[in-house]
Amino acid sequence: VHQSKMDFFCKLGYGKQDICKVLENLGQEALEDDVLKELIRMGSKPQALEDQAQPSQLKLVARGSCSPSPGLKWLGEDESDSSDSLRPIVIDGSNVAMSHGNKEVFSCWGIQLAVDWFRERGHTYIKVFVPLWRKEPPRQDSPIADQHILEELEKQSILVYTPSRKVKGKRVVCYDDRYIVKVAYERDGVIVSNDHYRDLQNENPEWKWFIEQRLLMYSFVSNRFMPPDDPLGRHGPTLSNFLSKKPVLPEKKWQPCPYGKKCTYGNKCKFYHPERQHQAQISVADELRAKTKVPLSQGKEEERCQCSP
């Protein structure tokens, strides 16, 4: 019996010395509840609570350790990164450049305008995909304007060339749209393009939903990159919510009451009444009843005073 009680209270976290003292005082046949009450009265705490009460000392973790403590961070890491709340951006370079060049010229300046727009918003992950053969000197059937911008964006690790090669004088080009959709899908980002990628939607049902929900269309107005304020329609999210991982719900706007001061609903009215902002929310009927009761009571008291000798 003694050993079983010792094991029981040791599992609860109490020390063996405290348990022995209590059992000596109360006897070996004491009930477990009585022993527990006596332990609590003595002020004895389980070992887990004592460990929590002691101030925890920070431990140095080796650089190669696989399980660093979650409270510690490596030097140079920022505690809060605002870019974490913004979605990655994947730009269809060919689509943007041809749109800026009126579908006649591959205008690299259009790509720069789009990249600058997202940079100003605070996006840090921006990738532009362009076929490798756009690096070659321009030809009459495919003119390129401001080709040096591609080299600058490549040095900044923003522009990525999709592979292509020549086989027996013929150019073999990999499908760059597949790169765009795949990277955006894996990064849970946004595709910037006016293309609907219908062939890729039919190819993969998961890509179909992703393209429908994460495709950001745009327009160029006087060398100004302008995406719509409502990317998914009038009843969809705003542009800022569309581009952020944590959308912010809009504040509830109260609609003013169409009846105004003539409204008789009182506190039951679901519309906004600016004139009742600092008043008690009672119905107009109750308010009228309260007003009519006062003069009636005053008149009765006056009649009583006149009739009395």
Write the layout of secondary structure elements.
Blueprint: H1 2-11, H2 16-26, H3 32-42, H4 47-53, E1 89-92, H5 93-100, E2 106-107, H6 108-121, E3 126-131, E4 144-145, H7 148-155, E5 159-162, E6 164-167, E7 170-173, H8 176-187, E8 190-192, H9 198-203, H10 205-214, E9 215-216, E10 219-220, E11 225-226, H11 239-242, H12 284-307
Parallel strand pairs: 1-3, 1-8, 2-4, 3-5, 8-9
Antiparallel strand pairs: 6-7, 10-11
Helix pairs in contact: 1-2, 2-3, 5-6
Pfam family, one: RNase_Zc3h12a
InterPro entries: Rege-1_UBA-like, RNase_Zc3h12_NYN, ZC3H12/N4BP1_RNase_Reg, Znf_CCCH
Family: Belongs to the ZC3H12 family.
Tell me about this structure.
GO terms for molecular function: hydrolase activity; mRNA binding; RNA endonuclease activity; zinc ion binding. InterPro entries: Rege-1_UBA-like, RNase_Zc3h12_NYN, ZC3H12/N4BP1_RNase_Reg, Znf_CCCH. The structure is a single chain. The chain has 309 residues and is α/β, with parallel strands linked by helices. It has 3 domains: 1-42; 89-243, Rossmann fold (3-Layer(aba) Sandwich), CATH 3.40.50.11980; 251-277, no CATH class. The chain has helices at 2-11, 16-26, 32-42, 47-53, 93-100, 108-121, 148-155, 176-187, 198-203, 205-214, 239-242, 284-307, and strands at 89-92, 106-107, 126-131, 144-145, 159-162, 164-167, 170-173, 190-192, 215-216, 219-220, 225-226. Helix 1 packs across helix 2, helix 2 crosses helix 3 and helix 5 (93-100) packs across helix 6. The protein is flat and about 105 Å long.
